[in-house]
Amino acid sequence: MPLALGRAFRPDGDDRCYLTLLHPPGGVVGGDELDVRVVVEAEAKCVMTTTAATKIYRSESATSTLRTTIDAHENASVEWIPQETIVFDGARARSLVHVTLRAGAEWLGWEIVRLGRTARGESFRSGVWRSQIVVERDGLPLWIDRQRIEGGSRHLTSRHGLGGAVVIAQFASIGECVDATTIEALRELAASIGSGATGVSRLEHGFICRYRGTSTADAAAWFHAVRARLQTGSSGSASSVERFWNLDPVREKESPCIN
Questions:
Q1: Residue 258 domain-assigned (yes or no)
Q2: How far apart are CA 176 and CA 108, in angstroms?
Q3: For residue range 199-230, what is the model confidence (pLDDT) as tens digits?
Q4: Residue 11 placed within a domain
Q5: What is the reported pTM?
Q6: Longest C-alpha distance within the chain, in Å?
Q7: Which of 139, 143, 141, 161 is nearest to 152 (CA)?
Q8: DSSP assignment of 235-252, as one string?
């Protein structure tokens, strides 16, 4: 049983359906393929998260693939906000996220990646991590993001690359335009986190937040704050997801974990 779905629930004061995805083996080995396909019906609202970090183990040659396909029908709202991915030294993996939005639909998602088990003194000296996110509507791309990080390359420490950062993260909201006031508010939220470099960019059909630093807890805390800022009309939305996350940086080891 490579993947399991937790029981859906809808908290009081929240109009979203919450789903949790569980990977019982606890990690992804070379050659594994995890394929998640989600269809959100018209007018439905869905939030999906995971109960623990995704661990990508070392592989001598075979590449692992994590594929997520989301189809949001008319006026649907879907969020894909998993806990972090830990890429072990020597891991070879690619993450593919493809989102199709129908008329009026919106998507919110994030990706938080730690390169190496840094709590054990491990660095990402070999292997490769690739990530691709495509969000489209009516066959036209609204946002495309691609990354390729090679273990041991100079880009890990270069000023024009990661600059020594071991955590890279991005948060995107696509489907609805945002005003300049909202963008400035999100930048102010970033100023309150404990560490790392941040950026917020306005897109034609939404926005993107990026984090580069050393703390998954800081990245997650900022992303949760951004999400809460966007969803002031759903009082239980933020706490309903955070029940699965540990956002205390003092207790942070490799990743947030289920309480």
A1: no
A2: 10
A3: 999 999 999 999 999 999 999 999 999 998 88
A4: yes
A5: 0.87
A6: 50
A7: 161
A8: TTHHHHHHTT----GGG-
